[in-house]
Design brief:
Layout lengths: L1 H16 L2 H22 L2 H11 L4 H26 L5 H24 L2 H19 L5 H22 L13 H4 L1 H24 L4 H25 L3 H4 L4 H33 L8 H24 L3 H23 L6 H28 L1
């Protein structure tokens, strides 16, 4: 959660200290970074969590082997970004990718060992330092370098913390291949959550402020959805081992948490958006963010049930199809109405809700087989 909070806080500082236009330009760079690191993540967290349930004594060897294989992918990605100069801010983009790759690699260990407090404090100190430098910066490039070096620090510190977790890697088969099902799910899900930004980046090319505002709203929406994964993660390895009665009990408690967390998170989000970002309050954004938040608490247990059935590729296929449908939905709507903030969030909300319904139908069908 802290990386998302850091990103939102920096967006607040940039919007208030500079403008929504400048943040819109930075968002264009962050889209490339997020897609690259989303691909490089390669289902890392879900694969390691499943390995914790199946091979707890081998987790250090598995973690190290997968990290080294993904490191090769990182080198290839950096070479591509450098060779093709995908962004005019190429160097800070590459540094952002390296920092986020490293940080993501250790998220699963932070969750496993429940080291939320020390790492939240570390991230908070880095964030305060970044903000102090951003307030003294003069241009977009300097802001991006400050964000990049913060990302590098966020990656380096957990790596030093968990050095003792690295064990001699053991390969009977490539872990990148073994984690392929989880990777396809992670990549498809990540792209599904970012393809809207790519489409709106194209549609709002002449309106960077609108793109920046949309990104901020959706960052809050996805952060609220991420709360579902945050609360579920420590229990995932145990969930795989539970009988049906135990799973139902966990799911019941999970939904009760959602009923408390989502309204509070949506309310706090709107306080921040209106009082700190200075965005105009629109009552229609409240139910849209509520639906997006509750969708995550409805979907997360179904996804883990399908994982338990070894239906990872089925999950990945459905999400991939949904990723293709979303741009079609947005472009179709854009041909009939002039898209604004509310219409844009509504289309993503509608798409997300249909996806939740589809997965519930799929699980019901799989359970009958």
């Amino acid at each position: 959660m802290m990386p998302a909070i850091s990103s939102l806080t920096i967006s607040l500082v940039v919007v208030r200290h500079y403008s929504s236009d400048i943040w819109g330009v930075i968002v264009g760079v962050l889209i490339v970074q997020q897609i690259t690191t989303g691909l490089l993540n390669w289902g890392n967290k879900d694969y390691i969590q499943k390995a914790l349930a199946d091979f707890p004594s081998q987790i250090g060897h598995i973690f190290t082997a997968l990290f080294l294989e993904r490191l090769v992918l990182l080198v290839a990605a950096v070479a591509i970004l450098y060779a093709f100069q995908i962004s005019e801010y190429s160097l800070p983009l590459i540094l952002l990718v390296i920092g986020h790759f490293t940080r993501q690699s250790f998220d699963v260990l932070i969750l496993q060992k429940r080291l939320f407090v020390p790492f939240a404090l570390i991230e908070s100190l880095i964030l305060v330092t970044q903000i102090a430098f951003i307030l003294q910066s003069n241009n977009t490039s300097e802001v991006l370098y400050i964000m990049a070096f913060g990302a590098l620090l966020r990656g380096a510190l957990p790596m030093l913390w968990f050095l003792n977790q690295f064990k001699a890697p053991k390969w009977s088969q490539s872990h990148v291949l073994l984690s392929g099902g989880f990777a396809m799910i992670a990549i498809a899900g990540f792209l599904a959550s970012k393809v809207d930004l790519l489409v709106f980046k194209f549609l709002f090319e002449s309106k960077p402020a609108l793109l920046g505002e949309y990104q901020v709203y959706m960052a809050f929406a996805w952060s609220i959805q991420a709360l579902a994964a945050y609360f579920a993660s420590p229990y995932v390895p145990h969930f795989y081992r539970l009988a049906e009665k135990g799973k139902l009990s966990v799911e019941s408690q999970f939904m009760k948490v959602g009923l408390i967390i989502v309204p509070l998170a949506v309310g706090m989000s709107h306080v921040v958006l209106t009082m700190f970002f200075g965005f105009q309050f629109d009552i229609l954004t409240v139910p849209l963010l509520m639906v997006l938040g509750f969708n995550a608490f409805l979907l997360t247990p179904i996804i883990y049930r399908l994982y338990a059935m070894n239906k990872q590729m089925l999950v990945a296929g459905v999400i991939a199809m949904a990723t293709l449908v979303l741009p079609l939905l947005i472009f179709s709507a854009a041909s009939f109405v002039e898209l604004n903030l509310i219409w844009s969030i509504f289309l993503v909300c509608l798409h997300n809700s249909i996806l939740v319904l589809v997965f519930h139908l799929i699980h019901a069908k799989q359970s009958l087989q």
